[in-house]
Amino acid sequence: MDLALQLLFTGIGIGSVYALVALGFVLIFRATNVVNFAQGEFSMLAAFMMVVFTLKLGLPYWLAFIMALVGMAAVGAVFNLAVYYPLRHRTYLPVIISTIGASIFLANGMLALHGPEPEVLEGWFETPGFLVGPVYVDSQYLLIIGVTAILVVLQYWFFEHTLLGKKLQATSQDKEMAALLGIPVAAMIMVTFVYSAVIGGIAGILVAPVLFVSIGMGAAIALKAFAATIIGGFGDVTGAIIGGLALGVIETFGAAYISVPYKDGFAFLVLIAFLIFRPRGIFGERVAEKA
Amino acid sequence: MSTTASPATEVARTRLNWGVPAYILFVAAAIVFAVLIPKTGYILNISLQATTYAIAVLGLTIVLGLCGQINLAQAAFFGLGAYAVGLGQTEHGLNFWICLMIGTSLAALFGALLGASTLRLGGHYLAMVTISFQQILTLILINWIPVTKGPDGVRAIPRPALLVDGSYYLGLCIAVLAGLGYLVWRLRDTRLGRAMRAVRDNELAAGVAGIDIYRTKVTAFALSAILGGIGGGLFAGGFAYVSPDQFSFAESVVFLTMALLGGVASPIGAVIGTGLLILIPEWLRFLKSIPGLYLAIYGAAVILIVLFMPDGIWGYLRGQLDRFKRARHSVKTGDALQLSGGGAGAETVLEVRKLSKHFGGLKAVDEVDLLIKRGGVHALIGPNGSGKTTTLNVLSGLYKATSGSVILNGQDITSLPPHARTKAGLGRTFQNIRLWRSMTALENVMVGAERPGNTAADDPAAVIARARAALAFVDLEHRADEVVAGFSYGHQRAVEIARALAGDPALLLLDEPGAGLNSSEKVELRNLLKRISARGLTILIIDHDMTLVSEVAQHITVLNFGRHIADGVSADVLQHPDVIAAYLGTAPDVAA
């Protein structure tokens, strides 16, 4: 029982990271109707930026954090201009292929620049953790859960209660109509990419102290975040969060009770089971083509 | 029919008459060259890698090029073939050919399973699921040591008895590549190949034309996996050693880049892309000294190709060549189109009873009854938002009916998918034209003629003849071999009608065929509809143009707010007070 509680805590912690990356997926999907296969690379890039700023340049953690987020905003903007925007009038297939190309380029470009050795990034807190009853609460996991919760609330408020949020929603639902109403659609898509890159970056920075900072971390996180979005129902924000948390928990329990080397396989088994038995996910997909 | 078909087939034959023997000669020369020319082990290895990789890339030509579905696990299928040949021979003492068959079957099985579980969903699912499958396979190859031998891989894999010498084995690989390449090249112009391209260009229209979209996609995916398996099996024999890292996600990316670079739509592109991407990294070996650099370049290349050369090298060359080629003169067969109108069955072609379609609380179609008698033109009219197009979409199966029943030619089609309704005898056109834009007019109409249930559908010569006749009927036979993307709006509309006519349906549904046509095109359309009707095909037409409707339709049903408000002979219905009220906005005396 104690072990189960411990695993639940860890699972929710790691699941929060998947949920954050999944949010990035969902936002871009809703704005552009394509899946950004380089979403995980955003997390990887941000984690490496933190490593460079704190370890190599010796900057204070908070300054490095802010600089990494500014860097990610720039990455998101360039990504949109180079990978998505020129293809916006083509079908989804070239765009998907283009984002896959970008993912490979970013991961291997980083590998070429930095080399294959993983890096260790310190956590935010001095104290590694504390005991609550039988459960050891790792402070980094606690931070991950907290930041995810805050970001989710902020995002809800932003989309539902600000004008910019409403404009973004309008763009994602019907670009032509939004353009006719005077919403600058190109700018809205730009905002979406920048924001998605930033929250992907936050996820990467948060998870970095738990994992190693490595070239492959982006792809690993992105695959699971994608599985989370399918489990939740593609394009649904609540679904992405619940899917992410569920996947984190399943994976942690699977590794503890079944097999460690196949830990990364559980997410895919769950994914395939969902595709066969409930392909529209828990909350249902939001897209349908009109005749 | 058979007499009119012969010129066309003869033309095709004379073209093949020198093409195939020349190809066989060329391949034979290549094999002799490969066997006889002395070469270093290095050259042999590169040649073996290029030929076996090219076979796997041919798989992507089918799934991505013809069918428009993504496959990011080609290296996994390649690996299944390779490990079957490796482990089967070294661990289980099986014969090379049996192992190759097992590996190919395994790849086909997993390809079909993967496709079957995912291909009902959107393309992004397939992309992710194939990546997942790729990752799972890599995990298994590394971790299931008792079976796969783990990270060490499988060593000393033998070749078949007569082909132990590397040069002879290379000859085998070239022969297999050439044979499979020929099949893939031919596939494009078969019924299946056209179905795949139709699915790629416009899925919705493909379903409505009678193509089983799901089965077509799963077939394409399984064929792609099979080619991956064959390539992998031959690769294992060629290199005598396989290990998990040779079949990782990175290799799937390499396959994808090869297909895209060469040109994904043609087997020639597959060979060009593979050849270049095997040779270029060898010339630029220094790139490999920095880990990641050459894959990073591949990634950037993928983006650049998609941006600037979407058809790949071969596609680009073809485009340049075509500019100098004169348009082929089509053989004229004349207008010999016969329409059976679904046979001389009962008097009623379509019977719709209490049909409803609700979107949440909105009753877009509310208990509509419709009775369409055989022969003649029946019009369904109503103001904007009255539920006309929704009714048509429910009838053709794009929307599922909330309640009610639809009986076509005596068969209950209420719960059938679109392609099965088409098989039952339904033909339709769309308000916003849905042609397969990269295909020629003739190919578009041929897919129509291949409607399951059409008597001509199973005979290729009859299909061509029927498609030409249908094009002649709409007066476009002279443009049969042009790609439809360049056609005017009116001509595209006519091709769409010809496509439906070629299938010889029992009932033709026309969704606002007059929309967007200028006045002279409208006159042509009216004449065309009268000619169709005169040949005995029943038409159900939706349109706003009252002149058109009153001129062609004998019978009119009027909808408003999803409900049926009037029904009867044209002249009477147009005088009906409720109808006038619905169109002109006066308050009706009786509530509708």
Give the C-level CATH assignment of the largest domain in chain B. Answer: Alpha Beta
Approximate helicity band of chain A = over 70%
State the order of secondary-structure elements of chain A, H for helix, E for strand: HHHHEEHHHHHHH
Number of strands of chain B: 10
Give the termini distance of chain A in whole angstroms: 54 Å
Rg of chain A from C-alpha positions?
19 Å
- How many helices of chain B? 23
What can you see in these coordinates?
The complex is a heterodimer of chains A (291) and B (592). With 291 residues, chain A is mainly alpha-helical. Chain A is globular. The model of chain A is unreliable at 286-291 (pLDDT under 50). The N and C termini of chain A lie far apart (54 Å). Chain A has helices spanning 2-32, 39-56, 61-84, 92-114, 139-161, 163-173, 175-180, 185-207, 217-232, 237-257, 263-277, and strands at residues 129-132, 135-138. By secondary structure, chain B is α/β, with parallel strands linked by helices. Chain B folds into 2 domains: 26-248, no CATH class; 348-584, P-loop containing nucleotide triphosphate hydrolases (Rossmann fold). In chain B, the strands form 2 sheets. A 6-stranded mixed beta sheet of chain B has the order 6-7-8-3-9-10, with helices on both faces. The longest helix of chain B is centred in the first third of the chain and has 35 residues, at 2-36. The model of chain B is unreliable at 1-14 (pLDDT under 50). Chains A and B meet through helix 4, helix 9 and helix 11 of A and helix 5, helix 11 and helix 13 of B.
How is this fold's topology laid out?
The complex is a heterodimer of chains A (291) and B (592).
Chain A: H1 2-32, H2 39-56, H3 61-84, H4 92-114, E1 129-132, E2 135-138, H5 139-161, H6 163-173, H7 175-180, H8 185-207, H9 217-232, H10 237-257, H11 263-277
Antiparallel strand pairs in A: 1-2
Helix pairs in contact in A: 1-5, 1-6, 1-8, 1-9, 1-10, 2-3, 2-4, 2-8, 2-9, 3-8, 5-6, 6-8, 9-10, 9-11, 10-11
Chain B: H1 2-36, H2 41-66, H3 74-92, H4 96-118, H5 123-143, H6 145-148, H7 166-187, H8 191-201, H9 203-208, H10 213-239, H11 249-262, H12 267-283, H13 293-308, H14 312-324, E1 348-359, E2 362-373, E3 377-381, H15 388-395, E4 403-408, E5 411-412, H16 418-424, E6 426-428, H17 441-449, H18 460-473, H19 489-502, E7 507-511, H20 519-534, E8 538-542, H21 546-552, E9 555-560, E10 563-569, H22 570-575, H23 577-584
Parallel strand pairs in B: 3-8, 3-9, 6-7, 7-8
Antiparallel strand pairs in B: 1-2, 1-4, 4-5, 9-10
